[in-house]
Amino acid sequence: MSAQEGTISKPGEQKDPATCEHISRMLSRICDKWTVLVVRTLGHGPRRFNALRRDVGEISQKMLTQTLKELEENGFVTRTVTPVKPPQVEYALTALGEDFLRPVRGLAKWVATNSERITAARRAYAPHLK
To answer: Which class in CATH covers the domain with range 17-125?
Structure first.
């Protein structure tokens, strides 16, 4: 068997470790819980910080700030400051963010469709869990 026990490759599949590492790093950046929820929320249109925080739910101010900075750094979100007193800051998805919204919505739909199956599997695996 290959160096990665149990891994089956398809004919013509890339086996470049650098590519795999890059994909892994990118997925860890963009697929965490808060990133997905923020992108999904901004998919409904631009939001100011406090409105975004309310719409996302149980996210702390610190975590929302960190998530928005990372999304902006990676090109998914724009931050627009309107110079009034106090300054107004609005966040919106970029074209890249809109592209990412498609798989995020697909994932959300998949979870909604399969949540009962996942719950049943969890109960079968550990009946004491709810």
So the answer is: mainly alpha
- CA dist., res. 25 & res. 74, Å (int): 12
pTM of the predicted protein model: 0.76
Tokens of 56: 């996302």
DSSP 74: T
Is residue 84 scored above 50 in pLDDT?
Answer: yes
Please tell me which of 14-18, 24-28, 81-85 the model is most confident about, judged by mean pLDDT: 81-85
Cβ within 8 Å of residue 36, ≥6 positions away: 104, 107, 108
Chain-centroid distance, C-alpha 26: 11
**Contact present, 43 and 103 (Cβ < 8 Å):** no
For 2-94, where are the alpha helices, taking DSSP H only? 17-30, 33-42, 49-56, 61-73
99 close to 85: Cβ distance less than 8 angstroms: no
**Integer Cα distance of 111 and 104 in angstroms:** 11
Q: Which two tokens stand for residue 20?
A: 């795999």
